[in-house]
Amino acid sequence: MKKISTIxxxxxxxxxxxxxxxxxxxxxxDSVLAxxxxxxxxxxxxxxxxxxxxxxKWADGSTPTCIVKANVLAKRVPEAGSVKxxxxxxxxxxxxxxxxxxxxxxxxxxxxxxxxxxxxxKDALAVTDLRLK
Length: 133
Prior knowledge:
Elements: H1 6-20, E1 31-35, E2 40-50, E3 53-58, E4 65-68, E5 72-74, E6 88-94, E7 97-107, E8 110-115, E9 121-125, E10 130-131
Antiparallel strand pairs: 1-2, 1-5, 2-3, 2-7, 3-4, 6-7, 6-10, 7-8, 8-9
């Protein structure tokens, strides 16, 4: 039976702690995506904290809404080379609205996605039209 070295165990623990802390905590004035209803995510900015979440100031000018923390995501655009066919992420629909989608085709810098809510497709999205969950 092999023994696990103390140094090896310490290094593994440090790696786990660093990896767990890679995503910063959300704060007032952060740009975010927030779940507006069961299927649509909208861009906004955190205006304040509220009971159990954040008051999101919507990018389209709608009245700010208190959204629970679990339904507020940091606005993270993937790096172009990291997106692969089959990846599930959020894809822009119109304006500041995003929906869950699966990447079905990549043609150079153009991405085709299939939205999971209605199986419709959208072509020629740029990587800046995609968001990580």
